[in-house]
C-alpha cells in the first residue's frame, strides 16, 4: 500500500507545475472582472428602466459576484459555441438559485442575457416575449465600487 501511495505522489509531482495567479487563465475570465454599471435593460421583450437599479454596480472578481445585496459565484463556460455564464446565488434574493445566461464582452461593454426562471440558457443576446429572460448591457465603471 505504501509503495502505491509513493507512486501516485511521484506521478502527481511530475505532472504539477506552478503557475502564478492569472497565468494561463482564459482571457475572457480576466476581461470580465471589474466593476460594471448597467446602462440598458430589457425583460421579456420590453425595455426596463435602468433607474430601477438605483446606480447599483455589478462587481465580478475571482469567480464571485455582487450586485447590491445579491452575492454569489459565477462560472464561465462554453455552451454549445456560445459564451455561457452560470450565476449561483449564495446570499440575497437569489440565494440557492442557479441562473443560466450567455454573455458577450467587447472592450468596456458587457452584455449578459439571463433566464431568471433558471430553466434554460438563452440562445441569443435578446429577450423574447412571455419569458423571464433579462438582458442587461453594462459599461465598465469609471469609478469602481468601494
Report on the structure:
With 146 residues, this protein is mainly beta. It has a single domain, classed as Beta Barrel (Lipocalin). 13% of the residues lie in helices and 45% in strands. The protein contains 2 helices and 9 strands; from the N terminus they run ααβββββββββ. An 8-stranded antiparallel β-barrel has the order 1-3-4-5-6-7-8-9. The N terminus is likely disordered.
Q: What order do the SSEs take from the amino end to the carboxyl end, as H and E?
A: HHEEEEEEEEE
> What would CATH call the class?
Mainly Beta
In helices, the fraction of residues equals 10-25%
Low-confidence stretches: 1-23
Sheet of most strands: 8 strands, antiparallel, barrel
Strand order of the largest sheet: 1-3-4-5-6-7-8-9
In the CATH classification, which architecture applies?
Answer: Beta Barrel
As an assembly, this protein is single chain
CATH topology: Lipocalin
Number of contiguous helices: 2
User: How many distinct domains?
Assistant: 1
Mean pLDDT: 83
Q: End-to-end distance, in Å?
A: 53 Å
User: What class would the helix/strand composition place it in?
Assistant: mainly beta
What's the gyration radius in Å? 19 Å
Number of strands: 9
User: Strand share of the residues?
Assistant: 35-45%
Principal-axis shape:
globular
Amino acid at each position: 500500500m505504501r509503495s502505491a501511495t509513493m507512486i501516485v505522489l511521484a506521478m502527481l509531482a511530475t505532472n504539477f507545475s506552478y503557475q502564478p495567479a492569472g497565468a494561463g487563465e482564459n482571457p475572457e475570465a480576466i476581461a470580465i472582472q471589474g466593476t460594471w454599471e448597467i446602462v440598458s435593460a430589457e425583460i421579456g421583450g420590453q425595455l426596463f428602466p435602468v433607474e430601477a437599479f438605483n446606480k447599483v454596480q455589478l462587481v465580478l472578481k475571482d469567480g464571485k459576484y455582487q450586485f447590491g445585496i445579491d452575492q454569489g459565484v459565477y462560472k464561465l463556460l462554453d455552451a454549445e459555441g456560445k459564451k455561457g455564464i452560470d450565476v449561483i446565488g449564495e446570499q440575497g434574493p437569489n440565494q440557492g438559485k442557479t441562473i443560466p445566461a450567455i454573455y458577450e464582452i467587447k472592450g468596456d461593454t458587457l452584455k449578459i442575457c439571463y433566464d431568471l426562471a433558471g430553466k434554460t440558457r438563452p440562445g441569443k443576446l435578446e429577450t423574447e416575449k412571455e419569458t423571464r429572460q433579462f438582458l442587461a448591457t453594462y459599461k465598465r465603471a469609471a469609478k469602481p465600487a468601494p
